[in-house]
């Protein structure tokens, strides 16, 4: 059984989808939810699911990314995770941290990478006049939002879409894609998964 730690900064809806999927014959189990933001909505959801939680407040470390990551590593260590899932985790990680977790750390990003790495993905897709948007699960490497793609789900853009309406439809796709990719990844399958 693989041990999965889920890293969040916000509402944690992807964390809920991931943690809820790891039951029965799933090859992994959730062992910890860590938030970089004190009081993030996802913490209460994790506690309600009976999951261990920790907070590593990034603001305490300012620009000291290595210090933040040392504290993050200390929070993770007692739970001995095999896999880290970033799920709305809004910190950029150093090359040392990404190297340490190479091949064992996943992220979900709300665009069809390589389009629109970084922030404001839905506004950028709308401004470009794209016909479709979507989300990507990828391995985390030192290059932001650029690691090997493990899965994508496509979402049509509708007339009258706003960044918020598109975000909520893409989020539903995220909740289907991320658990499906994690299940395959935990079983050793890194073949990209493509959902409609
Ligand atoms: C999700 O849309 C996720 O793709 C995005 O933040 C949201 C978190 O929602 N992540 C990023 O933008 C990473 N750069 P959640 O907290 O409800 O899962």
Element layout with pairings:
Blueprint: E1 2-8, H1 13-21, E2 28-35, H2 41-48, E3 53-55, H3 65-76, E4 83-86, H4 95-100, E5 105-109, H5 121-127, E6 132-139, E7 149-156, H6 163-186, E8 193-195
Parallel strand pairs: 1-2, 1-4, 2-3, 4-5, 7-8
Antiparallel strand pairs: 5-6, 6-7
This protein binds glycinamide ribonucleotide.
Report on this model:
The protein is of the alpha/beta class and 196 residues long. It is 34% helix and 23% strand. It has six helices and eight strands. Helix 1 (13-21) runs parallel beside helix 6 (163-186) and helix 5 crosses helix 6. The longest helix has 24 residues, at 163-186. The mean pLDDT is 98. The structure holds glycinamide ribonucleotide. Glycinamide ribonucleotide (GAR) binds at residues 8, 10-14, 42, 87-88, 108-110, 171, 174. Glycinamide ribonucleotide (GAR) is lined by residues 8, 10-14, 42, 87-88, 108-110, 171, 174.
- Cα separation of the termini: 30 Å
Uncertain regions spanning at least 5 consecutive residues: none
In terms of structural class, how would the helical and strand content be classed? Answer: alpha/beta
Mean pLDDT: 98
Please state roughly what percent of the residues sit in beta strands, choosing from under 5%, 5-15%, 15-25%, 25-35%, 35-45% or over 45%. Answer: 15-25%
Q: Count the strands?
A: 8
| Biggest sheet statistics | 8 strands, mixed
The count of helical stretches stands at: 6
Q: Using only CA atoms, what is the Rg?
A: 16 Å
Name the overall outline.
Answer: globular
Report the order of strands and helices: EHEHEHEHEHEEHE
Helix content: 25-40%
Q: Which small-molecule species are bound to the chains here?
A: glycinamide ribonucleotide
Major sheet: arrangement of strands: 3-2-1-4-5-6-7-8
């Amino acid at each position: 059984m693989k041990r999965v730690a889920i890293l969040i900064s916000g509402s944690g809806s992807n964390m809920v989808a991931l943690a809820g999927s790891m039951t029965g014959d799933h090859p992994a189990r959730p062992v910890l939810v860590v938030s970089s933001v004190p009081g993030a909505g996802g913490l209460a959801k994790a506690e309600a699911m009976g999951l261990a939680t920790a907070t590593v407040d990034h603001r305490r470390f300012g620009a000291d990314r290595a210090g933040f990551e040392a504290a993050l590593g200390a929070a993770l260590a007692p739970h001995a995770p095999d896999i880290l899932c970033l799920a709305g985790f809004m910190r950029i990680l150093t090359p040392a941290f990404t190297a340490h977790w190479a091949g064992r750390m996943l992220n979900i990003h709300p665009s069809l990478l390589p389009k629109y790495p970084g922030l404001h993905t839905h506004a950028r897709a709308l401004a470009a006049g794209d016909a479709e948007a979507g989300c990507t699960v990828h391995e985390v490497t030192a290059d932001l939002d650029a690691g090997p793609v493990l899965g994508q789900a496509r979402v049509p853009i509708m007339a009258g879409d706003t960044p918020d309406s598109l975000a909520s439809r893409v989020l539903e796709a995220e909740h289907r894609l991320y658990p499906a990719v994690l299940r395959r990844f935990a079983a050793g399958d890194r073949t990209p998964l493509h959902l409609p």
